[in-house]
Amino acid sequence: MDKKEAAALKIKAAKIRIAALTAFDSLGNGHVGGSLSICDALAVLYGREMKVDPKNPGWPDRDKLVTSKGHAGPGIYGALAVEGYFPYDELKTLNKPHTHLPSHTDRNLTTGVDMTTGSLGQGTSIACGMALGDRLKGRKNRIFLIVGDGECDEGQVWEAFAFAAAKKLSNLVVLIDMNKKQLDGRTDEVMPLGSLEDKMKVFGFNTQLVNGNDVEAMAQALENTRGGGDKPYAIIMDTIKGAGVKEVEETEMNHSIPVSHEQYARWKAELEAEIAGWEALL
Amino acid sequence: MKIIYDGSMDPKQVKAVLGSVIPDMAEKDPDFIYLDADLMSCIGTLKWGKANPERAIECGIAEANMIGVACGLAASGFKPLAHSFAPFASRRVFDQVFLSAAYAKNDITILGSDPGVTAALNGGTHMPFEDVALYRSIPTAIIFDPTDNVQLEDILRQSPDLPGVKYIRVGRKDMPKIYAEGSHFKPGEAVVVREGKDCTVVASGIMLGEALKAADALAAEGIFLEVIDPVSIKPLDKETIAASLKKTGCLVVAENHNKNGALYDAVLEVVAEYCPVPAAQVAVEDEFGEVGPQKYLQERFGLTAENIAAKVKKVIARK
């Protein structure tokens, strides 16, 4: 990838972060940490990897994204707003009565959201069904599935991964957001799972471990999932919970936190300054 | 709709119906897809399923995942039917059915075999007396407790095209013959299987046959029951039940379920709102199942024609 494309993806990631923070600012709080940690992945997915059309969100042959860690909804909404799936100002309706943007992703409410999730673990099985179903329908698309590392405490996740390997779902790409924290603290303290990389390999996945907050590394890792074959793909994204906003990164308990207007203005200005720096490279 | 009940049992076991109808549904509709959690051989679909692995999805012993996969298949344009034993098709997968299917509007059918005492020799661990109550609490769910093989086949064949979550609970062995071949049923449309003036009996599943036996026995004593097959427990045909209660003035509800939250409670909502009458229930008390032959268990838990007749006399006395 050349420097210009990398800069463009970094700009997109920063714009998604600003959009997500715009939603949090309107509400005053939210699942900030786990929304920010996936923004680089979202920039690469929507900016480069996924075959989608914001003007035709119901296109059956599109690539689909299941965010099984549904509480990262505001991160997804940020990406969808940046991509033009709905008007940017709708971000300010997060969790308000009659909104199309509920805290957890809902395919029946939000244009561009491909599956309803929220009860952790459940999106993994649904994504397997979508991958199997689209394959049986003869579609050439792929299903991308974002799973939290804390979410991997759920047994259903492992039922789904066994199923994906058994059915040779090579049109399924699992992105595990290994931000190393969950609601009550560090994943290694709450429920140590050992090496997710080893686990995914043993479960029968083509597995990569990459810096999930590096758009160039993510772009390469996703390119490596285009090969088909007879195994599903897993990318363990080594991320920072709250990535891209230093103050949030440095907040130990940052799963769900308050966001003041003052913080929002400061964080937005920091991200805009980064964008300006990268734009100079274009 | 023709009623042919004469007290005889259907020589064809339910398992044989399931084992022939499910493959036929797959053959007739390319969008129909069947999933099982390592229990294909229990409903006679294994041979066909192994030969057709793209139409019969083997999910292994992982019911929660099976429901999620079914939901994903629905999102891809399929009409899935997922089977397991009734406890695992209800209790064990409740959150998956509630959220991944009903809430997310992924339309699927769930077949729970061996509900209540029909679990028999599998015993208390496999004997759900609570599955209907669970499904009743899911908004928009449709619940069937078929009363004979003809109804079962008709419900199975129409279920893929009904909206939302559909739950069908049925034993795998013997059922009475009640309806003539070709009879057609609709959710929310009850059938008055026998007309009578003295007491209304609403009975689902295996209890409809018991209710008809009770009706025959009581007729000899000059007591005439109006026996109603609700067809679907949810939605419930309030009009037919209310009209019957206005005529007979009393009610007995019989169900292969515990007394909490299922058919009796659904019918009592009609009673309370439209036509208060003396009422009684034939159902399992607030207790767990246990192991034994079905005949023993029906006697143990009071799910018999004799108990229905006794309850009928009590409610008539309270008129």
Please describe what this structure looks like.
The complex is a heterodimer of chains A (282) and B (319). In chain A, a hairpin with a 2-residue loop joins β5 (181-182) and β6. Chain A contains eleven helices and nine strands. Chain A is an alpha/beta fold and 282 residues long. Chain B is an alpha/beta fold. Chain B has two domains: 14-170, Rossmann fold (3-Layer(aba) Sandwich), CATH 3.40.50.970; 191-317, Rossmann fold. Chain B is built from eleven helices and twelve strands. Chain B has a seven-stranded mixed beta sheet with strand order 2-1-3-4-6-5-10, sandwiched between helices. Chain B is globular and about 60 Å long. The mean pLDDT of chain B is 98. Chain A binds chain B through residues 60, 106-108, 114-116, 118-119, 121-134, 136-137, 155-156, 159-160, 162-163, 166-167, and chain B through 33, 54, 57, 59-60, 62, 64-78, 95-96, 99-100, 103-106.
CATH topology of chain A: Rossmann fold
Radius of gyration from the alpha-carbon trace of chain B, in angstroms: 19 Å
The backbone outline of chain B, from C-alpha atoms, is globular
CATH architecture field of the largest domain in chain B: 3-Layer(aba) Sandwich
Spell the H/E element sequence of chain A.
Answer: HEHHEHHEHEEEHHEHEHEH
Residues in helix, % of chain A: 40-55%
User: How many DSSP E strands of chain A?
Assistant: 9
Over the alpha carbons, how many angstroms does the gyration radius of chain A reach?
17 Å
Biggest pleated-sheet summary of chain B: 7 strands, mixed
**Within the largest sheet of chain A, what's the order of strands?**
2-3-4-8-7
Q: Helix fraction of chain B?
A: 25-40%
Overall structural domain count of chain B? 2
CATH class group of the largest domain in chain B? Alpha Beta
Integer tally of domains of chain A:
1
Strand content of chain A: 5-15%
The secondary-structure class of chain A comes to: alpha/beta
> Could you give me the name of the CATH homologous superfamily of the largest domain in chain B?
Thiamin diphosphate (ThDP)-binding fold, Pyr/PP domains
Largest sheet of chain A: 5 strands, parallel
Arithmetic mean pLDDT of chain A: 97
